[in-house]
Amino acid sequence: MASTAAASESSSTRILVSKIYEYLPYLVPLLLIVHLIRRRYGSPLRKYPGPVLASFSRLHSLLSVASGKYPDRITALHARYGPIVRIAPNELSFSSPEAARELLSAGKGFHKTPFYSVFPPPENPDIFTETREDVHARKKRVANVPYSMAAMQQLTPFIDETIEVLLSKLNNSEGKVDLGDWLHFFAFDVLGEVAFSRKFGFLVQGVDIDDTIKTIDDSQWYNGIVGQVPELNHLFRNNPLWKLVPAIKMGKSALITQMALNEMGKRKPFEKSGGRTDMEADRKDLLQSLIEGHLKSPDKFGEGDVFAVAHGAISFAGSDSTASTMQSFFWHVLRDPRVYSAVVSEVLTASKSGKLSERVTWAEAQQLPYFQACLKEAMRTRPAVGVNISRLIPQGGAEVNGTWLPGGTSVAVNGWVLHKDKRIFGEDADDFKPERWLEDEEKAKKMERYMFQFGGGSHLCIGRNLALLEMNKILPLLLKEYDIELIHPDRPLNANTTFFVVQSGLEVLIKRRGS
Ligand code: HEM
Predict the structure, then answer these.
(1) Kind of pairing, strands 410-413 and 91-94?
(2) Which of 2, 87, 394, 399 has its CA 20 to 30 A from that of 20?
């Protein structure tokens, strides 16, 4: 009896298995469709409009970033769907600057999303890649000290030295030059000096040595795209087999990594050198300040953090961002004869009346209101970070700008959208118009509050003082020294957004004033 029952049971199992096999080609797509429909309609975010693909897959975001035109894509999405757009199954993009202020403000428990974890180094996250707020806060407290404006001012001699090299190069190449390339080389060389008291030599050689800049940009391209689906990182960069493919050197710029390692090595043991590279030098570079921070609080800021922060500043955060901003400044100023003539006249008048030194200082640049307005306007209309800044809503949910959102929702904001808000910046917010900063003090203060070119809150850019110091010194100086003209005034600047908006094509005719 028992054996008959067992035989019949095994035969029905066989039938079931054979049926499953028979229907498998239909079953798998069916289950997938059910899963996708659940993602689209079963989510509490279903009431928010957005592209259909985005409601059930992150593929939409991935393809948008891969296009290199993310600022245009996200702007178009908000123009079509309104102030809150569902850009992925669990992600909303907000266009309102008020929402961005709340999202980025410190102490609300909004953490960075897994997007950031894709950026190297995975083994020792730096200030940018660290997604644990408490660990981030601990590290940032130490790293903030050397990045303060007072500390940065002491680095002025490093910047001045690099300025001399740039000027000598431009003096020797009067006529047609790619100003964008020179500004890019300048931004890198300043960082080499500031961080390690070492010249990378981009300006001297006038080329992208060892394809360093290209390697960094390729890495950013990868980070921006794979960051949309961070799980893919296990398949690629974090996959040991990936490293065996010789053509791929994602995230590893030999020149910069080697320089960082050498400089750290030379200063060991830290207890003895105090982080100084040269016992005679009276200049303190960034690495020395970071080592001092490490010596004071080795438990909060380990040796790995010293390396990660110094290396990250150069190989990721500080170079493309500053170069892109300077290129935007020149492109906007040069293509509008009215703006160019106003800013040049301000600089030359100040210079003639003895208000500018031969090498413009930070304090002097602050006394050039029209120049300051042009710089702000460049950072407003073309912020250097082109992809979204995103944060996670904590478990239990939270309100953003009056909208209740469930825990685990990712919320994104984008400077290219936020800075074009007509309520804050005016009906002509899409236009480059420096005057908007000079018309009314109250209005200018309000606009300032809603500028996100350096992010905000606890993740406000740590390098903003360095970038501002550098730009305030070199930009007016170039306007003072040279007559500059766009070769192709009607041609847009080529912009390829990876994480930063990497720009090219700033070709100009340059002539020394008075020559
Ligand atoms: C004009 C130049 C720059 C721009 C426009 C810029 C922009 C930004 C933005 C928007 C963020 C916030 C990103 C986010 O929350 O997802 C950020 C963060 C950061 N930036 Fe910059 N940056 C510039 C220059 C620099 C420089 C020169 C350095 C270092 C030398 C630097 C280092 C960092 C770091 C470490 C972070 C992470 C801060 C944190 O999460 O606490 N940046 N930057």
Answers:
(1) parallel
(2) 2
